[in-house]
Amino acid sequence: MTVELVEVVRSGFRECVHSGSVVILGADGEPTLALGEVHVPIFPRSTNKPMQAITLLRNGFEPLDDAELAIATASHYGEPDHVALVERLLDRFGFDEKALECPPDLPQEERARAEALAEPRRVYMNCSGKHAAMLATCAVNGWPTEGYLDQAHPLQQAVIATITDLTGEPETDLGIDGCGLPIIPVSLVNLARAFAAMATATPGSPERRVADAIRTNPRVISGTNAPDLLTMQATPGLVCKMGADGVHAGALPDGTAFAYKIADGHDRARIPLTLAILHRMGIEWTAAHAELAAPPVLGGGARVGVIRAIPGVV
């Protein structure tokens, strides 16, 4: 069963409640908090992207810089700097946008979306950086570039092997993610352990390179005012990655880690819960953390309530 984790309070009235499951790991990899269904596999969605990027490095992909590696892990907002990185990566390996097998989309960031409304494009899709890096890895290895989404493709077999290695999760039936790629079910406790392994890996290893690229380029992996950007800016050393439908995972340099799934997938529960978890993990609380932890509920443009982690639960 899931547990009530986040509440929306308007004018003193508890208007909504978001339930879910959450696990926090100590530096030894064992849970210090486990609420709800933390051993039941879920679809991690884009929280898998750092592990997919590790696969690419293990199989010969060599980015020009950390920003190019970061865009390979991104759920980007389709802003101009994001699109430029994806296009640079495609061009460097001799591909055009048509080679991407993710669906066309519009940017998520408001201003970029307004400018692009006339033409959905594959490079605007939030997963396009990962797809471009996958094409690059196919080119490096001489693998077919058509059909790289297929579960039987050598690239996807390598991804499955890497995620199984990092999470220790038994192989099971796969799903299909929003961008068309296979998605591997992983329990929250093993997802958190994979992030801890990335955060504490040997410098220069594929795992650590991906963690460091995310830490140093939080805007590249997300976008303007995105939850991952705001959380990592407020918390030096944190590596984290959100996934669609209420998934989030992250780790600190000492190997403490977390993962959660909001049952109804609502994004507004994400930042308050993440901040409550970080507080429980012992980070030094700042004004930036306090502000993020309690986003306002508005009425007529004025603050009339709050979205917050339920006190005493996490």
Briefly say what this structure is.
The chain has 314 residues and is α+β, with helices and mostly antiparallel strands. It has eleven helices and ten strands.
Record keyword descriptors for this entry:
314 residues, alpha+beta, eight-stranded antiparallel beta sheet, two-stranded antiparallel sheet
Which outline best applies?
A: globular
State the share of residues found in helices, binned by percent.
Answer: 25-40%
For the secondary structure, the number of strands is 10
Number of helices, counting only DSSP H or I runs of 4 residues or more: 11
The separation of the N and C termini measures: 16 Å
As residue ranges, the low-confidence spans are none
- Give the averaged pLDDT, no decimals: 96
- Give the ordered list of helices and strands: EEEHHHHHHEEHHHEEEHHEE
Portion of residues in beta strands equals 15-25%
User: Biggest β-sheet: count, sense, barrel?
Assistant: 8 strands, antiparallel
Question: What class, by secondary structure content?
Answer: alpha+beta
* Rg (C-alpha, Å): 19 Å
